[in-house]
Amino acid sequence: MDFSTIDTSHPPLKDLTTSNITQNVHAINAKCNNPRTRYLFQHLVTYLHDFARDTNLTTQEWETAIAFLTDVGKTCTPVRQEFVLLSEVLGLSLLIDSLNHPKPQGARATDGTVLGPFHTHEAKDVPHWEMISRDGEGEPMLVGFISSRRSVERSDAVFGVKESLVVDLGTVSYVDGLAEKYGVEPSTRLLTYDFVLVSEEEVKALRESKSRE
């Protein structure tokens, strides 16, 4: 849709129909002084109205959605932002991160990701096999590697969508002197993974280029 052709005149309320209500909302939002905000709302309203029309959304479904969003808001606290979690469930967080950090075409750059909901910069380093729980309460959970020979590799939901989690593990004996350096057995498993990063300058240039397209 070409938003530059939007008619900003207010249609009479008695003439409102399912086909012209979107234009009426655009006319109201056209009074917004911020061009970017006005642009975003024009697109949001258009897609939202089209979604309702395309799916023939019912009043009950609309009320259920409102109740769900209300519950999400009630769950939020100063240290827990439930709407961010909802954004991640919908795939929006990663999409926005990918759009704002584009990769050069053909580059073997590592795919970006977002920080987990419980990530904190204040987390302290702890020795291997030590508890990371601050209060020591609850049932301990051990995290480890799963052999590729296990059927869970293809049946588990996480591995089903995260192909990058499946890697080949060698042993420290593959690298001369590594076992002695860290005081471990030569048969200790070794995970190697190369991260290929894109510079901020490249990302900025790509972002500006895409914004002009």
Automatic annotation (TrEMBL):
> What InterPro entries does the database record attribute to this sequence?
Catechol_dOase_N (IPR007535), Intradiol_dOase_core (IPR015889), Intradiol_RC_Dioxygenase (IPR050770)
Query: Which Gene3D superfamilies did the record assign?
Result: Aromatic compound dioxygenase (2.60.130.10)
The processes (GO biological process) annotated in the record are: catechol-containing compound metabolic process
SUPFAM superfamilies noted in UniProt: Aromatic compound dioxygenase
**Catechol dioxygenase N-terminal domain boundaries:** 34-107
Residues crossing the lipid bilayer are none
GO molecular function per UniProt? catechol 1,2-dioxygenase activity; iron ion binding
Stated name of the protein:
Catechol dioxygenase N-terminal domain-containing protein
Protein species of origin: Colletotrichum salicis
